Amino acid sequence: MLTKEQIGLAVNQRVLVALEGSDEYYVSSVEDITADAVFIAVPYRRQVPLVLSRGDRVTVQFTGENECFAFNTTVTSRREDRILLYGLAFPEEIKRIQRRRDVRLCVMLDVQYAEVPEGDAAPVFKPGQALDISAGGMRLVCEKEYPPGTVLLVKFRLPLRGSFFETVTKAEVVRTEPVALEKRRLYHSGVKFLDMPQNHRDKIFSYIFWKMMEQARLR
User: Fold this and answer.
1) Domain ranges, residue 62
2) Residues near 67 by Cβ (< 8 Å), separated by ≥ 6?
3) Number of domains in the chain
4) Which of 91-105, 136-150, 176-190 has the lowest mean pLDDT?
5) pTM more than 0.85
């Protein structure tokens, strides 16, 4: 069994919880960590609580510094102070489930993109949309076919807990495929961010994680 320090959870940390074997995740948070248990608030999904009993097996997912993690454990107790808490046994092991940069969120985003200008010329941005985003890149809807290897400038902003995160970054086209939309020929271009600071990737990942939390609540 892992120790408190090895688990990597912290009080107030958001987690996703599902009954073992189910893919229906509920949103919860870590409320206390004792010498032998992690106490979480009652998980909710679309205002419906996940009612757990002692002995139930659950899967917990959470995000770490650079990756997402998951572990299976057992509900060992219920504790009621101001709110009802479920006590979870420390797990035997924790698995990495996905690299942070690979966690992709399907979402329509307003973006602006431009070809990299020559010399000191200012870039000419065009309004566009992204169909998904990860900390490593996004899928753009473009009016022009950009072959793989083309470097674009991409500008976008994301809502983050009452404020906005804005960035402009270089992005390399890694794939392009034509699509037809309302008799228009468009292109879906998958791009990867180039030279993006780690703290910017962290903010993108935070946005993705919170959106995933919201989606879990609404499903």
Assistant:
1) 13-97
2) 96, 97, 98, 99, 100
3) 2
4) 91-105
5) no
Q: How far apart are CA 31 and CA 116, in angstroms?
A: 48
Band (pLDDT 50/70/90 cuts) for residue 218 is low
pLDDT at 113: 96
Domain boundary among 53, 71, 97: 97
Q: Which residues contact 167 (CB under 8 A, 6 or more apart)?
A: 155, 156, 157, 196, 200, 203
Residue whose C-alpha is closest to residue 219's, from 23, 20, 21: 23
More confident residue, 5 or 99: 5
3-state secondary structure of 211: helix
CA 176 to chain centre: 24
Do 147 and 203 share a domain, yes or no? yes
Look up the CATH number of the domain holding residue 164. 2.40.10.220
In sequence order, the β-bridge partners of residue 166 are 157
pLDDT band of 102, cuts 50, 70, 90:
low
Quickly count: other Cβ atoms within 10 Å of residue 216's Cβ. 21
If one compares 210 and 149, the residue with the highest pLDDT of the two is 149
Beta bridge pairs of residue 70: 61, 95
- The one-letter amino acid at 59: T
Best CA proximity match to 50, nearest among 80, 20, 71, 72:
20
What is the H or E stretch that residue 26 is in?
strand 26-33
